[in-house]
Amino acid sequence: MAKYAAAVDQGTTSTRFMVFDHSGNVVAIDQKEHEQIYPKPGWVEHDPMEIWGATQSVIAGALAKSGVNPADIAAVGVTNQRETTVVWEKATGKPVYNAIVWQDTRTDRICNELAKDGGQDRFRMKVGLPLATYFSGPKIKWILDNVEGVRARAEKGEVIFGNIDTWVIWNMTGGPNGGVHVTDVSNASRTMLMNLETLDWDDEILKIMGIPRAMLPEIRPSSAEYGKAIGSLAGIPVAGDLGDQQAALFGQTCFDPGEAKNTYGTGCFMLLNTGTKPVQSKNGLLTTLGYKIGDQPAVYCLEGSIAITGALVQWLRDNLGFFEYSKHIEDYASAVEDSGGIYFVPAFSGLFAPYWRSDARGVIVGLTRYINKNHIARAALEATAYQTREVLDAMNADSGVDLTALKVDGGMVYNNLLMQFQADILGVPVIRPKVAETTALGAAYAAGLAVGFWSTVDELRKNWGKDHEWTPKMDPMKRQELFAGWKKAVTRTFDWAE
Fold first, then answer.
1. Residue 300 parent element (H or E)
2. Is residue 410 within 8 Å of 12, Cβ to Cβ?
3. Following DSSP, what letter does each residue of 395-453 receive, concatenated?
4. Which helix (H) or strand (E) holds 104?
5. Helices (H), 100-202
6. Which one, 43, 161, 168, 300, has the greatest CB density within 10 A?
7. What is the pLDDT of residues 283-336, one digit of tens each?
8. What is the dihedral of CA 192, 197, 200, 201, to 10 degrees?
9. Please, is 177 exposed, middle or buried when counting C-beta atoms within 10 Å of its C-beta (0-12, 13-18, 19+)?
10. How far apart are CA 258 and CA 270, in angstroms?
11. How many Å apart are CA 462 and CA 248, to the nearest integer?
């Protein structure tokens, strides 16, 4: 009788492996960072081989540290940084180029070219996404156009594409020796190549972008058995696959329309369950797949994506040397009563929702002689809360439903100053669950459901418990005034990059 379900959580800055018991408690964890490669301004890459090495390392590490017997694991799921694009040789498993990360902006020319006929929303009705550097489709095109010989080999099916979920699952299930080449609906919906209605690759868009269908993975449900693992998890079914934000939605048990969560990681991502029909956004949000359990109808979401939140704290730590550890930002920010009238808009790789401006770049506005390091630290945290408010306003407008509380997860939710300011600027309670690592939990849930370790989503709902709630304390007039200042600051980032 199996006791556990497990998940590989392959994120933007690190990879972890986590094992959960039937009640959703963490039993084992190991984590490893990987290198961020910046070849040119606006370019961000990862080494796919380093990521696969880290994946094997954390699986072995978590099992060794915890003494968990792999035979007691019912199934393993995978969750991943979503749009990050890998193209590799089927015969050898060798990448033809580094992984191009979701934050990378090198495809802006490709996107502008494609937008000449039909504008930024040229494919939106079909795929739910604007033309933006964020998504995988243009990144695949860039590799096909710029790496010698790859296009011809892609047409023969000799080189294949995947987001990181596909790369990890392919390697986990045998790699060149029979690895399974699959993705799930949530990841496929981030490529700009999958039709929201048919849940299949769209031949017209493939033709326009010049992407051979032969190189694409098979699109499967998020909870289904794909194959058996090799290595440390030999013989265990690989049975769950969800993009990281959808995995967090699943882990937060947002299974009903109108339920929403916000994940505070490298970027910030708010997802609202809209049920089994796609809702097209009029306010700059993405229409995306939430998840699909086995043969059940797919569930759709509206998503607000913010590119830079936790990454701003990392930037203050690594590029400016403000502090040694990210958690210290709260001490600096708490040393002042407010941000001293400054706003920090971190449009380092353009602005995502609700603006979709790849010409924007970061600014700090309102600087005076009075400002010190503490004000900048505080303004950096507040930027995350303001950006979340913009997304929530767009969500309320699109869905016609006013959100009454926000479920939050991810690394930054242990920052009390940020969470209180978030509740203040939203004017609704902010709720942190007992298990804040809901991304890995969601992938483990999907895998466990596929093999009957959990039988229904109601069983998963019972596992969810509240850890802390922050309620708004700010005067509504003050909220209005601060937010108006933010909106003004955002306009100062526009039209910077040519």
1. strand 299-306
2. no
3. HHHHHS-----EEEESGGGG-HHHHHHHHHHHTS-EEEES---HHHHHHHHHHHHHTTS
4. none
5. 108-115, 124-127, 136-146, 150-155, 164-172, 185-188
6. 161
7. 889 999 999 999 999 999 999 888 888 889 999 999 999 999 989 999 999 999
8. -30
9. exposed
10. 12
11. 16
